[in-house]
């Protein structure tokens, strides 16, 4: 079975092909401004740095698909998913990742889309999946389309890679924070898990799976809806702010001035009555 998985993944990804130097295109900036709230609030200087980190990610990581044409927008969203969680760590490199594979929809253990058991939207791991990340392309886009729903599969899976960077995926990103601080973190996880079990929490119950998934789910919430996380779960917000070393509230402040403006989708309606995501 393992050999079959290895052969399947090898047929997906093939061997990395050396890439030519890439020159940043202005239309890529326009796409990120329109699509990625995190990017939109950056200063011009930080946007230039974001571009550099996207290009570096592209140079070191292949992005492929077997059954769909990959667009520049797809590649930008994959790179944004990688850069955002580690923005506070300018020298971070996903040394354990060689390729990202995009599928046309949710998939199963055999990476088949459209089957009765096709329920995964993202996957990383070890063994046959070592160095690989698989994402559902529609789910990747949906994660950025609604920037307030506390769900972003791209960020979710890259948080798993961050967690794995110390050689052990255990729900504590030791590469970001010394392990000496792990005890209060896991105590907080236990407390928040009890709240979810008692239906006293708005954290997605997928976080109950284990401590690994709790970190990924909570991180989605942190990057998607920081204001609500800070309001409803201040201790969790503070812990994640320490992990990621970011002033994530800038994203929330960016949204407020646009509520009464015309929606960017061109509908003619005010943003708050059109595409502003529900809390």
Topology:
Elements: H1 2-13, H2 26-35, H3 37-40, H4 44-60, E1 62-64, H5 72-83, E2 99-103, E3 122-124, E4 132-136, H6 137-145, H7 153-164, H8 182-197, H9 211-224, H10 226-232, H11 234-244, H12 249-255
Parallel strand pairs: 1-2, 2-4
Antiparallel strand pairs: 3-4
Explained architecture:
- The protein has 279 residues and is mainly alpha-helical.
- It has two domains: 1-165, 3-Layer(aba) Sandwich (Glutaredoxin), CATH 3.40.30; 166-250, Collagenase (Catalytic Domain) (3-Layer(aba) Sandwich), CATH 3.40.390.10.
- Helix content is 47%, strand content 6%.
- The protein has helices spanning 2-13, 26-35, 37-40, 44-60, 72-83, 137-145, 153-164, 182-197, 211-224, 226-232, 234-244, 249-255; strands spanning 62-64, 99-103, 122-124, 132-136.
- Strands 1-2-4-3 form a four-stranded mixed sheet, with helices on both faces.
- Strand 1, helix 5 and strand 2 (99-103) form a beta-alpha-beta unit.
- The longest helix is centred in the N-terminal third of the chain and has 17 residues, at 44-60.
- The N and C termini lie far apart (44 Å).
- Residues 1-6 have low confidence and may be disordered.
């Amino acid at each position: 079975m393992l050999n079959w998985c290895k052969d399947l993944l090898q047929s997906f990804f093939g061997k990395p092909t050396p890439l030519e130097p890439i020159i940043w295109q202005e239309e890529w900036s326009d796409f990120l401004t329109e699509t990625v709230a995190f990017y939109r609030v950056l200063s011009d200087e930080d946007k230039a740095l974001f571009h550099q980190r996207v290009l570096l990610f592209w140079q070191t990581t292949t992005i492929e698909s077997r059954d769909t044409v990959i667009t520049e927008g797809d590649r930008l969203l994959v790179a944004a998913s990688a850069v955002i969680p580690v923005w506070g760590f300018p020298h971070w490199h996903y040394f354990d990742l060689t390729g990202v594979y995009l599928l046309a929809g949710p998939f199963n253990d055999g990476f088949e889309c459209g089957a009765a058991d096709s329920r995964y939207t993202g996957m990383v791991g070890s063994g046959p999946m070592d160095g690989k990340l698989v994402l559902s392309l529609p789910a990747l886009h949906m994660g950025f389309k609604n920037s307030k729903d506390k769900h972003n599969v791209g960020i979710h899976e890259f948080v798993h890679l961050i967690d794995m960077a110390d050689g052990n995926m255990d729900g504590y990103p030791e590469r970001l924070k010394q392990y000496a601080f792990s005890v209060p973190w896991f105590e907080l996880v236990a407390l928040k898990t009890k709240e979810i079990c008692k239906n006293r929490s708005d954290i997605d119950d997928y976080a109950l799976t284990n401590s690994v998934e709790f970190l990924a789910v909570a991180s989605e919430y942190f990057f998607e809806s920081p204001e609500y996380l800070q309001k409803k779960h201040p201790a969790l917000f503070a812990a994640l702010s320490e992990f990621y070393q970011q002033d994530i509230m800038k994203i929330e402040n960016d949204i407020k001035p646009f509520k009464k403006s015309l929606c960017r989708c061109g509908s003619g309606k005010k943003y708050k009555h059109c595409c502003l995501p529900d809390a």
